[in-house]
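Structure tokens please, single chain.
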Amino acid sequence: MSAGNSQFSIPGSGHAFVRAVRTHWRSLTGGSAVRDAERRTLVACSGGADSAALVLALADRPIEVAHIVHDLRSEAEAIGDRDAVRDLADSLGLPFHEQKVCVRDRPGNLEANASTGRYEALREIAVGRGIGLVATAHHAEDQLETLLMRIARGSGVAGLSGIAPVRSEGSVQIVRPMLSVSRNDAQSFCRICGHAWREDATNADISRARAAIRHTVLPALIEAEPRVLTGAARTVRQMQLAKSVLENEAARVLSTADRVLNRCVWDRAALADEPVAVVGAALRAAADALLAGRHADTRGSDSVLAVSETICSRSATSARYDWRGLVVSVDSHCVSLERDNDE
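Here you go.
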């Protein structure tokens, strides 16, 4: 396989890594009903082995390459990564795009802000280019890391559904065609192609929870149980199916609420007849609707579970719960969820 005036030796579609990535890329972007020429995709590339492998595997497909420069590391490191990705794209004859994101001074969690900023920038680039698909290089270990972190936080079904293979970012679809392959697979593929990837020093900082899990927990877990990556993938898939059922039930329960401006009200007796999990999912859906998704990270599964169990207990005791931006009130007759005027 060749692309442009590539300096690399890239295996063809018979190679297991290329076949896996392309198969999932196609299945996530319309399946057999869509020709490859119609799957224009913006591939997000940081310069690391994972995203470089994704670019190389799709190099002769209709892709363009995007790199987001952020301010979480020194300017020299950030520019070095940018230049490496641009050189990779140029050597493959692929269009290259970059955009800068400043997140260090934003309030809130730094890593979450960086992720949000990257996706916003990728969407802007894609929309500007008339591209409807953005591919990221999340892989099997990323999925397991995410699952372990959410277990540690006590996440519910939604959290344990892991990294979605496809999700919407405005008018753009984010696709993850590498969730079935491992980090080692990606690094091996880069070596076969003759590509030297960049290493992000911040990924080795084990004071960060995800990096600590990546460098200490995952190697021990994989050594103890080599099937853990495929097992985690099956668990995530089952949770995704369960999440879909809960979301449908939540939508049904939400439709029974009396909705006036910034308030949702239910008859408590009717709500208490529902399963606790469904009540919780309906409250989350109502909260997201009232706040348009803001502050979702502050409505943890423990808080939602506490409210849901109170509602379904049929206790005559009244209760009030403060969620950031919202107030949940429960009495013997009704349950209300409304915007907090002081927020």
